[in-house]
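User: I'm preparing a small set of examples for a lab meeting where we compare how different chains pack in three dimensions. I only have the primary sequence for this one, and I'd like the structure in token form so I can line it up with the others. Please keep the answer compact; I'll paste it straight into my notes.
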Amino acid sequence: ACGSCAKTGICALADEEFTQITEKMVQADGLILGSPVYYAGINGTLKAFLDRAFYVNGSKLRHKVGCAVAVARRNGGMPTFQQLNNYFLISEMVVAPSYYWNVPHGSAPGDVLEDDEGMSIVKNLAQNMAWLLQMKQATAATLPPPKPYPRQYTDFVRSSHL
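Assistant: Understood. Below is the structure token output for the 162-residue chain.
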């Protein structure tokens, strides 16, 4: 949070690979984020990347469609799922839904394919994501997105008005 990108639009720590990936994120119609559950949260490498990518490019992702999937062995799926969705929400993205939380279960590669309920949730999510992307494209000319409402910043400290 050095704030350098607020002045330049580029992360001061960015390398060529980071820049290429974040440019693809900005150019994409939608984003799918996925993570295994590590200590009831997203893995550290992904968090470090997403913190930087969304801090630098969050406003450029406004109104894109996003969805998240967290894969849990047992528990911690909901905090991980929520962590991923928070990146979308703070960037004013449209979050694709499913009929239950997008948290299939498995402990080894390929195990999630045996989670029938988890896979049905993810397949429903994929259909909804595709539909939202198609709807956004079909209405682009007739229903432009609203301009951002002017943002107000506070530090939650209020002086007494008495």
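A couple of notes for your slides: Helices lie at 4-8, 16-27, 44-57, 77-90, 116-139. The chain has a mean pLDDT of 92.

User: Perfect, thanks.
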